[in-house]
């Protein structure tokens, strides 16, 4: 056991979260209802902004802060790993399969692997949620068939319904 670390290097300050805004835009963000801001908190160095604060990496999980205006959130998708959400501000509806639940600040939702799920801000103010995923890079994401159809309707037909990490941050992504 060692206790000789610089603990400050292992702190992500909320006051600095804007410096961690991710340039990565998952495919669903091409649809207006899924436009949101994403901030890399832990892990996912491939999604971190260039020139931003050093990303704290670990092998076990990642954390991404999601900021969504009323009526917006992220599309239904599934992956082979667990995902948990902690609501920090606002009210959200979390859907999983044919069920949904309304959640508010400090509620925690745990989604088992391989279940389609979404999260939408149903409040009247900007909502903030923390997404926690197993693994260092996130898991391959399968978009729900209706989301793939919506993307196709606006000419953004993905070659596959699956996005695989590490995601490339590039124009048009």
Structure summary:
The protein has one helix and eleven strands, in the order ββββββββββαβ. With 173 residues, it is mainly beta.
Q: Would you give an account of this structure?
A:
By secondary structure, this protein is mainly β. The chain has one domain: Jelly Rolls, CATH 2.60.120. Helix content is 5%, strand content 34%. The strands form 2 sheets. It has a 6-stranded antiparallel β-sheet.
Descriptive keywords:
5-stranded antiparallel beta sheet; 173 residues; mainly beta; 11 strands; Jelly Rolls; 6-stranded antiparallel beta sheet
Topology diagram in text:
Blueprint: E1 37-42, E2 61-68, E3 73-78, E4 83-89, E5 92-96, E6 99-103, E7 108-111, E8 117-121, E9 127-134, E10 141-143, H1 145-153, E11 162-163
Antiparallel strand pairs: 1-2, 2-9, 3-8, 3-10, 4-7, 4-9, 5-6, 5-8, 10-11
Q: What form results from the Cα inertia axes? A: globular
Q: Give the helix/strand class.
A: mainly beta
CATH topology: Jelly Rolls
Give the percentage of residues in beta strands.
25-35%
How many alpha or pi helices? 1
Order of helices and strands: EEEEEEEEEEHE
**Number of domain modules:** 1
Number of strands: 11
Uncertain stretches of 5 or more adjacent residues: 168-173
What topology, given as strand order, has the largest sheet? Answer: 6-5-8-3-10-11
Residue share in helices?
under 10%
Gyration radius from CA atoms, angstroms: 16 Å
Question: Biggest β-sheet, characterized?
Answer: 6 strands, antiparallel
What is the CATH level 1 assignment? Mainly Beta
The assigned CATH architecture is Sandwich
The CATH homologous superfamily: Jelly Rolls
How far the N terminus sits from the C terminus, by CA atoms, comes to: 43 Å
């Amino acid at each position: 056991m060692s206790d000789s670390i610089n603990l400050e290097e292992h702190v992500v300050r909320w006051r600095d979260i804007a410096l961690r805004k991710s340039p990565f835009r998952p495919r669903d963000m091409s649809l207006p209802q899924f436009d949101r801001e994403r901030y890399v908190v832990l892990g996912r160095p491939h999604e971190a902004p260039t020139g931003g604060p050093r990303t704290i990496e670990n092998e076990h999980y990642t954390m991404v802060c999601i900021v969504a205006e009323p009526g917006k959130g992220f599309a239904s998708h599934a992956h082979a790993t667990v995902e948990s959400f902690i609501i920090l501000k606002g009210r959200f509806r979390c859907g999983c399969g044919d069920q949904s639940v309304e959640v508010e600040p400090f509620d925690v939702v745990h989604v088992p692997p391989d279940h389609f799920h979404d999260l939408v801000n149903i409040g009247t103010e900007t909502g903030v949620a923390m997404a926690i995923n197993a693994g260092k890079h996130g898991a391959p994401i399968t978009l729900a068939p209706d989301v793939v159809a919506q993307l196709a309707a606006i000419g953004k037909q993905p070659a596959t319904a699956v996005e695989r990490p590490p995601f490339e941050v590039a124009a048009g992504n």
